[in-house]
Automatic annotation (TrEMBL):
Phylogenetic lineage: Eukaryota, Metazoa, Chordata, Craniata, Vertebrata
UniProt keyword terms in alphabetical order: Calcium, Metal-binding, Repeat
Organism: Atrichornis clamosus
Cross-referenced CDD domains: C2A_Copine (cd04048), C2B_Copine (cd04047)
Keyword Calcium: yes
Keyword check for Nucleus: no
Protein name: CPNE7 protein
Gene Ontology, cellular component aspect: plasma membrane
Record-annotated C2 domain positions: 3-132, 139-291
Record region (Disordered): 413-432
GO biological process: cellular response to calcium ion
């Protein structure tokens, strides 16, 4: 279409879209080998998406019904909000619809199977395929469901463009009667006040349109009008890559040059088509130019070459990556827990001890460990967590150690649980997740078996453990890839003894791909620990060197004693996505290529 967008007296440059604060994720669903419940025809599947909130499952959306298909690919795209610091449990239920409006609520809508997972698991793997289960954990034959995720609110940066044109067609011409008119409107004399423009030239402006998949055109940007100039230079402008090309470099763009008319009847000068991929040739000292073509003239005029030339003088790309860009690019979150085994915790055999193992009620160390680890495990593909201890005498010589593996394997401090869950469970309301998350279970078992073998001692030195994890993070940094980020969870019952060394270690760690979470367990006075959390000021080393990034979060566990188990994780993990992006932005490491 050649009709220009409706405009007011003066075309205003289009404002940039604001950056999204909340991440949204699109989920695409397909199934294979569904059970055939119909006698005469194949099943007519429909998928329901449910989300758990406060222990209750609530339907949030559903797909269309696909007739007579046991391997459906659903067109419906589910959209969910994404929060790193929460375990967002999803349930997908597949039904054979019999034409009722209330799919899943009628006895004659056959249940074909269901699957539970978390949003974190889906975005970390980008593509998840799992078996479908019937009620009470029975496999639904060979049925599987596949979920593919894609971030939609991530703004992959913006681009700065500078255009000019040369030798544009002059749409102002003399018309019969000697008055000034617009080409293509011969004989329509302009009102007397406009006779003063008799010798003026065109007033060009440029519009850029993005051509979407349905061939519709979305206006991306409209430049200002340059008055009385056939070789205008427009002001440089910025647009987000999401707006310009939906972050797809090969998406076609239509660029149109108009001659401005105050009555809104702008004259078409010419157009050209390009892509963001082609535009990028203008980076540095290079320039790219296009013939500005008027299709009507091309047909009518034998020697027609163009209606001018449009030149892209400069292009600057400012990439802005989101946390999900890195996670979906394959970045793993490696979780390490460090546990305080100093004598101030009390004898583990005594019920007053902070390390007392109550078979009916986990102690504060276990509660904090599970709350934070349950989130992090979704972002670590091998589900093996490093678990370290400090402040205890350890076998065989019972010397004090401040960085020992609680599985007593100095060559491999990663813990692996003896049991894991297949993901089966009842779709009649019974959760499908295991009692302990698989990754956490190994740490829990190592912690419980470690306690009888060690002697609680002291002092409370945490700098050795921070430095130990930092050495691993430094090796990762040298790969110059966004492949692994480290989270160190320190659980302690008192103020650290080696505060100067700890501050020095944190400053060093702030230059590495790691974040530190410190949870104060018990009723000690943790006032002096607040200095490690840079919220009230910048943490500095003893020599006065400031941290590069604020990477420490400290909270006393007692503030969450009466809150839900998820409240602690929300508090201490909410800053991690920002810390990950800050580090990789500082290093100028882009996300790795997404996994196939």
């Amino acid at each position: 279409p050649r009709t220009p967008a409706s405009m007011g007296d003066v075309p205003e440059p289009c404002p940039q879209a604001p950056l999204a604060v909340l991440s949204k994720v699109e989920l695409r669903v397909s199934c294979k080998h569904l059970l055939d419940r119909d006698t005469l025809n194949k099943s007519d599947p429909c998928v329901l998406l449910l989300m758990q909130s406060q222990g209750q499952w609530t339907e949030v959306d559903r797909s269309e019904v696909i007739k007579s298909n046991l391997n459906p690919v659903f067109a419906k795209i589910f959209t969910v909000d994404y929060y790193f610091e929460e375990v967002q449990k999803l349930r997908f239920e597949v039904y054979d619809s019999h034409g009722h409006a209330g799919v899943g609520t009628h006895d004659d809508d056959d249940f074909l199977g269901g699957m539970e997972c978390t949003v974190g698991q889906i975005v970390a793997q980008k593509r998840v395929t799992k078996p479908l289960f019937l009620k009470y954990g029975k496999f639904a034959g060979k049925s599987t469901i596949t979920i593919i995720s894609e971030e939609i609110s991530g703004n992959n940066g913006y681009v700065e463009l500078a255009f000019r044109a040369k030798k544009l067609d002059d749409k102002v011409s003399r018309v019969p009667g000697g008055t000034r008119g617009r080409a293509g409107r011969a004989g329509s004399a302009l009102p007397h006040p406009l006779l003063q423009d008799l010798f003026s030239k065109s007033d060009p402006f440029l519009e850029i349109y993005r051509i979407d998949d349905d061939r519709s055109e979305q206006l991306v940007y409209r430049t200002e009008v340059v008055k009385n100039n056939l070789s205008p230079i427009w002001e440089p402008f910025k647009v987000s890559l999401n707006s310009l090309c939906s972050c797809e470099e090969k998406r076609k763009l239509r660029c149109v040059v108009w001659d401005y008319d105050s009555r809104g009847k702008h004259d078409f000068i010419g157009e050209f088509f390009t892509t963001f991929e082609e535009m990028q040739k203008a980076m540095g000292e290079n320039k790219v130019q296009w013939d500005c073509m008027n299709p009507k003239y091309k047909i009518k005029k034998r020697n027609y070459k163009n209606s001018g030339v449009v030149v892209l003088l400069d292009l600057k790309i400012h990439r802005v990556y989101s946390f999900l860009d890195y996670i979906m690019g394959g970045c793993q979150i490696h979780f390490t827990v460090a546990i305080d085994f100093t004598a101030s915790n009390g004898d583990p055999r005594n019920s007053c001890s902070l390390h007392y193992i109550n078979p009916y009620q986990p102690n504060e160390y276990l509660k904090a460990l599970v709350a934070v680890g349950e989130i992090c495990q979704d972002y670590d593909s091998d589900k093996k967590f490093s678990a370290l201890g400090f402040g205890a005498r350890i076998p065989p010589k019972y010397e004090v150690s401040h960085d020992f593996a609680i599985n007593f394997n100095p060559d491999n401090d990663e813990c692996e649980g003896e049991s894991s869950s297949s993901g089966a469970g009842s779709m009649a309301g019974t959760p499908l997740t295991p009692a302990h998350p698989t990754g956490i279970q190994g740490v829990v078992e190592s912690y419980q078996s470690c306690l009888p073998k060690i002697q609680l001692y002291g002092p409370t030195n945490v700098a050795p453990i921070i430095s130990k994890v930092a050495r691993v993070a430094a090796d990762e940094e040298r790969t110059k890839e966004a492949s692994q980020y480290f989270i160190l969870l320190i659980l302690t019952d008192g103020v650290v003894t080696d505060m100067a060394d700890t501050r020095e270690a944190i400053v060093r760690a702030s230059y590495l791909p790691m974040s530190i979470i410190i949870v104060g367990v018990g009723n000690a006075d943790f006032t002096d620990m607040q200095i490690l959390d840079g919220d009230d000021g910048v943490l500095r080393s003893p020599k006065g060197e400031p941290v590069l990034r604020d990477i420490v979060q400290f909270v006393p566990f007692r503030e969450f004693k009466n809150a839900s188990p998820t409240a602690l994780a929300k508090c201490v993990l909410a800053e991690v996505p920002k810390q990950v992006v800050e580090y990789y932005s500082y290093k100028a490491f882009p996300p790795r290529c997404p996994r196939p």
